[in-house]
Hints:
Elements: H1 9-38, H2 61-88, H3 91-120, H4 125-154, H5 165-190, H6 214-239, H7 245-269, H8 274-306, H9 310-321
Helix pairs in contact: 1-2, 1-4, 1-8, 2-3, 3-4, 4-5, 4-8, 5-6, 5-8, 6-7, 7-8
Amino acid sequence: MTALPDAARPAARRAGRGAAALAFAAWSLVVVGALVRAHGAGLSCPDWPLCHGQLVPDFDAKIALEWGHRAIAGTLSFGVAALALVVLGRRELRARFAAPLLAVIGLLGVQVVLGGLTVLLGLAPWTVTGHLLIGNSFALGLAWLARDLLEAATGEPVARPALGPRQRISVWFAAALVALQLALGGLVSSHYAGLACATFPLCNGDSLAPTLAGPVGLHVLHRLNGYAAAVALAVVALALRDAGRAGRLAQLAFAGVMIQIAVGVANVLLRVPVEITALHSFVAAGIFLTTGLLVREALRAARSSDALPAAARRAHALGGAR
Length: 322
């Protein structure tokens, strides 16, 4: 990929920092959404886009929480619009980053629609789960775009160790398990199955998997897939231990999963307190974000490796093996 002209780099740097700030805000918004659910405030504003027919309603605690969630989301939308003006306003940035920016805007549009449907359909499980998945994907899209912009702003190619096919496959597999775990977490929450297994490590003192049907089955699948994701990320962290930034992201994702398992156990044993539920969502979003950026590193490593001549690739691989 050709370097950005010197004149375009300051704009790329500003846009990258702005996208990173928006990604953090989107991550935080996921946690606010978890607090809305945990406090049972999801239908405190029973209509949409207004709240009780008003732009600014009379507040109680629950209405304030749900309305605040909407207000933060609206502010975030304005931030994305400002980012779009910066990126699309320069020809050099527009040529390189218009497509990922439009993907982020598309995710935001879907998220807005799902937010409205979540209210209008009375917290239907598929809307709640979809809202969670798209919200996290939106945060990841912003973080991905931020990294691309900031790397382009340096004007220097990023050195990445080449990853072998098995390493890349292990990354894809772990990422798929993390995405599935997020979806299962949304289903557990939307079906109110957080205490369907009220003991740990066995489910209701019976077995690891007494059934795969109903709320208990959802909870069991969430636990089993969590274990699988932890093992998969442990394998990735070990395989990429000498892979620079990709290795650090893999280690961070694995550490996040281990923390998340502990938080999940606390959530069950303490009977799903609001604070632990919010922390559970915060860590889950962080794992998804970190794993997504790990996927980005694996893709970039494959691209840079493919661009090298065959002899250089062999030398690069031998150097990585040492």
